[in-house]
Amino acid sequence: MDLFEVLHLDELSHGLANLSMFPYFDMAHYMVSVMALREQPGALDVSRVSPIACWFSSMLFCFGGAVLSAIMLAEPAVAPLSNSTSVLLASVIWYLVFYCPMDLVYCTAALLPLRLVLSGMKEVTRTWKVLGGVTQAHSKYNDSLLVMIAIGWARGAGGGLISNFEQLVRGVWKPETNELLKMSYPTKITLIGAVLFSLQQTHYLPLQKHHLMLLYTVFTVVNKSRMMLTGSSTSPFAVIESAVYKTLFTGYSPYSALTGEVNNPCIDNGATNTTTSTADKRRESSENGEAGQHSPVPPVKGQSESLKAKDESGNTETASCKKTD
Amino acid sequence: MDLFEVLHLDELSHGLANLSMFPYFDMAHYMVSVMALREQPGALDVSRVSPIACWFSSMLFCFGGAVLSAIMLAEPAVAPLSNSTSVLLASVIWYLVFYCPMDLVYCTAALLPLRLVLSGMKEVTRTWKVLGGVTQAHSKYNDSLLVMIAIGWARGAGGGLISNFEQLVRGVWKPETNELLKMSYPTKITLIGAVLFSLQQTHYLPLQKHHLMLLYTVFTVVNKSRMMLTGSSTSPFAVIESAVYKTLFTGYSPYSALTGEVNNPCIDNGATNTTTSTADKRRESSENGEAGQHSPVPPVKGQSESLKAKDESGNTETASCKKTD
Amino acid sequence: MDLFEVLHLDELSHGLANLSMFPYFDMAHYMVSVMALREQPGALDVSRVSPIACWFSSMLFCFGGAVLSAIMLAEPAVAPLSNSTSVLLASVIWYLVFYCPMDLVYCTAALLPLRLVLSGMKEVTRTWKVLGGVTQAHSKYNDSLLVMIAIGWARGAGGGLISNFEQLVRGVWKPETNELLKMSYPTKITLIGAVLFSLQQTHYLPLQKHHLMLLYTVFTVVNKSRMMLTGSSTSPFAVIESAVYKTLFTGYSPYSALTGEVNNPCIDNGATNTTTSTADKRRESSENGEAGQHSPVPPVKGQSESLKAKDESGNTETASCKKTD
């Protein structure tokens, strides 16, 4: 691809492709993951009530992708534990983030500049994880694009996809939402990566692997940094998503009845049924102080909300810690 | 078996045994499964909020049995995805049922005659799925009847057995009920099939495979059609079940205390304890507008109720759609 | 190790090591497990509503460890079913405990002396299960201590670790607590056993296997008997635990704000945030009549409470049954 040669990016992409994730990038990944866990509501209480549940939860945040893809491929789910060095590293970081005297480690790492660097490095590991998953699936199911995408996605965004069960370890249970109902930005970008690397692997995408790695990594890092700096939660795909959504998934609207245009008893009937049930559901969920998953908003909105929530939690924490210095 | 020869059913059973499920019977299975999903409360809302969660849910309805039996046998849970043709077929049907303009596909398929044919064809696939599961288990665990029954059951009724987790994908969580607590008719008929085919496989049942296939298929299809036409939900096994239940499982009734005959402090004590807890439970669950699983009714009743519920939902939909033509 | 020779314990330990668990010790294990299930709130109702759910639940109590470790090692989860004799034995015991006329079996086995013997024998099986898990993991992951501990623990305390899902089978769902959040005594002693046997397996512990088996078995049996006789729930590790807890896991207390010593805005902020959320959580959970897992007590207390609860249930039952004789 001469564009790369023109821009002298070939050797750069080669250099990136030969980059080793261990130990620095892995450490950044563990750091950001454990900090994300710590910023979950109630996580600090759990870390006091039951350190072992907190540790297990952290390991799911750090190695969730490996566990999930292992289960999907019928490989031992304990395999990640067999890599003692990584587990030890993650455990040390878990301990420092949760139990360090004066909370120095967390407060330092939560400073925006440092957090920015760590998050950037974590995004780099995403490329390697997705690619690893895709390659592994390709070696088992040669021709199946779907399996490659599924495994790549699971490997890269496992922590998010199993979040319901990770929360269960901490005694939290939020069935009304999951990453499939309200995809967060990381899950979304990982899915796109899995698709791209699968297409490259099956040669549908006329790109060399290291070039794609460079492009994807740059995109994720830049985009993540932008979102952290501007604090904006506008997904770069929002426009495309809503376009696709409007085109494909609004063939038959069960809400036509609400907007008055009753043109079809079948639809009408269905609409009234479903919407009442929705109302009930929403009432329930509002009682629990949760946003019901049944509110008829396009996924984009839901995702950006959850994303904003995350960012805010992050910012408040950062702010609160800044004061200490 | 000369009865078959007398009735000239031998070649018929051979013909059935050589019947290929792909593509027509599989399509019918996908169609009926996706329609069943669509008729779940709140499913339409999910299809609008998150098409991907809806798609994943549909795949669990269509391939749940394969996934469950794969997990039980420690085979890759993603294997069903590797059969691209089936997944593509199921996905197209999912799209048409949920998002077809004017909702034509669903309303057409929901017409009683067509629905009757589709359901009948789906019942035929059940025989093949159960038999496939039993054979697979037999090849792995030669002599173990229990494993063969378990796998055959899982393969044939997987969608129902994992329903709690399928619902979780859609953000619905109903822990107070599952297919083991309140067996639905399909789960029950599949269990019986699994037992029969396992006995045939281990030669405890003096029948040839293709004869059994014919008998089981005819029974399931006829019975399903009867239930759909009469709209009755009386299980054909209700009598046998309640007889077995009365004989085996009422040795010691913790409810004797309620009926006044206090003949044993042990029982009495147990009864009061449990029934109070039951009362609480029932209050809770009634608040959630759900029938608590702790109400002391025999399983038969519970099952027929749930079955009726299903039928009704089906009928209302059908009715509502009939108007459109 | 001459201490053993001096005390002439060598042949005793050899004798113990060659002891066969089948059938008597296994039967005791099944008996105690099924009785523990029966003493769960609502279990009797389930046994009336759906014998099959009750049976499946009992099998999870009896073979949960084997199932969990099989899943973790990507081995067939149905494997335990393939051992027909054990399953048959467990099923017969399940039937007798739940459905025996006049409830003779349960009331007899619940008599303190008999229950004491059965519980002692069950504790013996624990040694074998933990050792089996550790050995199996060692054969697969030679050098990985963590995997050996995990599998040994899962094999020995599986029933407890999967309790959330075992309860789900019975229609009960208590996300706010699990064995990791509030470790019960059996789970704890099994974890210690798994650690010891793993260290022995990897020769970090200078002890012969049969000597360790003797020591561990004697300790578990004696300790269990003590707890049943005295009805006391003071874990023998309470002191060590709270010492370790105080040393390691109280580096940064989010509750300092409550005790007035506000020395750090970061901590202060975090504390107020988390504690309010805790308050909410506790209110919720108290409404459900459950102890919220978010109450900031050290795990030791939580565990001893749950333990006391268990013991009491056991005692009341025993008492209630004594009257009958």
From TrEMBL, chains A, B, C:
Keywords: Endoplasmic reticulum, Ion channel, Ion transport, Membrane, Potassium, Potassium channel, Potassium transport, Transmembrane, Transmembrane helix, Transport. The chain crosses the membrane at residues 20-37, 49-73, 93-118. Its main location: endoplasmic reticulum. InterPro entries: TRIC_channel (IPR007866). It is a multi-pass membrane protein. It holds the Pfam family TRIC. It comes from the Eukaryota. The keyword 4Fe-4S does not apply. It is found in: Endoplasmic reticulum membrane. One of its GO terms (cellular component) is endoplasmic reticulum membrane. GO terms for molecular function: identical protein binding; potassium channel activity. It catalyses: K(+)(in) = K(+)(out). The keyword Signal does not apply. Residues 263-325 are annotated as: Disordered. Intracellular monovalent cation channel required for maintenance of rapid intracellular calcium release. Acts as a potassium counter-ion channel that functions in synchronization with calcium release from intracellular stores. Activated by increased cytosolic Ca(2+) levels. Homotrimer; conformation seems to be controled by binding to diacylglycerol (DAG). Belongs to the TMEM38 family. This is Trimeric intracellular cation channel type B.
